[in-house]
């Protein structure tokens, strides 16, 4: 059986479904930003040092366009760092603490973007952008 490709409407539905898991519930979802690389999947125990927990806006994501649901960063979600190191990845949770997705941290084009990936204990860490992307293939 060969690979499939998805229509834009299907990509939007997929990204919106994941965003819906985060946006549902009685409160805002949140992100944990950690060092190193993400584990195999969000069901696996989180790895690396926890650098900061950031509560997201509620709802956290806008409706998908072209298969991409953009993270709402107005106002910028932020949190105070609890450790010093380099941000490597982030785990996305719903308001009940259920893991939804893992992805890379960076300064541009990543799952979660920060002004800098160099995190210092006690500093306020703000998310500058982020997205959930449903691939076409």
Question: Describe it for me?
Answer:
This protein has 137 residues and is mostly beta strands. The chain has one domain (27-133). Helix content is 12%, strand content 34%. It has one helix and ten strands, in the order H-E-E-E-E-E-E-E-E-E-E. It has one helix at residues 8-23; strands spanning 30-34, 50-55, 68-70, 78-80, 85-86, 89-93, 99-106, 112-114, 118-119, 124-133. The strands form two sheets. Strands 1, 2, 3, 4, 6, 7, 8 and 10 form an eight-stranded mixed sheet that branches. It is globular and about 45 Å long.
Main attributes of the structure:
137 residues, mainly beta, 8-stranded mixed sheet, two-stranded antiparallel ribbon, 1 helix, 10 strands, 12% helix, globular
């Amino acid at each position: 059986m060969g690979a499939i490709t998805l229509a834009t409407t299907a990509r939007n539905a997929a990204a919106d479904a994941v965003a819906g898991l985060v946006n549902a519930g009685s409160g805002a979802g949140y992100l944990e930003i950690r060092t190193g690389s993400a584990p195999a999947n969000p069901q696996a125990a989180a790895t690396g040092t926890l650098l900061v927990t950031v509560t997201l806006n509620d709802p956290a994501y806008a409706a998908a366009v072209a298969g991409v649901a953009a993270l709402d960063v107005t106002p910028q979600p932020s949190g105070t760092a609890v450790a010093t190191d380099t941000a490597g990845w982030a785990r996305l949770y719903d308001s009940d603490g259920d893991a939804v997705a893992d992805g890379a941290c960076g300064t541009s084009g990543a799952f979660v973007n920060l002004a800098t990936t160099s995190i210092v204990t006690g500093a306020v860490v703000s998310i500058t952008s982020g997205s959930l992307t449903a691939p076409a293939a």
